[in-house]
Design brief:
Number of helices: 5
Distance between the termini: 44 Å
Number of strands: 0
Oligomer: single chain
Radius of gyration: 19 Å
Shape: elongated
Order of helices and strands: HHHHH
């Protein structure tokens, strides 16, 4: 119990020292995701659906759309993989940035982002799957404290 108390006390002290940097990191990341990335994916899906002549896409008409428009299905699956990669990038970037803040390194956010992308390229699919399952598990609980463009409908 004493270990836990000292761990929490040390981390609280560290957070108190750097709270503005943590806040700025979360705001900028959410701004980029909410203003650029999520609208881009939304626009791509809307354009693909419209170009294929599908009036709406829900789980109720998914099978007929799959049968009549296999290229649309492949395109949507590619977009789904890209969205999963973007979610993983966001989560990994935030965790790496927080680690660099904690260690007080002199790396810029751009350097951390490039490091994160290199890590994504070298990632094994099972590792990404575990990260995405973790994201899906904590998403309902995380919405209480942390809102993201990924939590809303795409």
């Amino acid at each position: 119990m004493r270990r836990l108390t000292s761990f929490l006390r040390a981390n609280y002290r560290l957070f108190r020292q750097h709270w503005s940097v943590y806040l700025l990191l979360l705001v900028i990341t959410n701004l980029i995701i909410g203003s650029l990335v999520a609208p881009l994916f939304t626009w791509l899906v809307e354009r693909l659906v419209a170009l294929n002549g599908v009036t709406y896409l829900t789980y109720t008409n998914l099978v007929p759309v799959m049968m009549r428009h296999p290229l649309l299905l492949i395109s949507l699956l590619i977009i789904l993989v890209l969205i999963c990669a973007a979610v993983y990038l966001q989560m990994t970037f935030l965790l790496r940035s927080m680690r660099h803040i904690q260690k007080q390194t002199q790396e810029t956010y751009w350097m951390i982002f490039k490091e994160t992308v290199r890590g994504l390229v070298a990632l094994r699919p099972t590792t990404m799957l575990v990260g995405l399952l973790y994201f899906l598990l904590i998403l309902p609980f995380g919405q209480v404290l942390f809102k993201s463009a990924w939590t809303g409908p795409l």
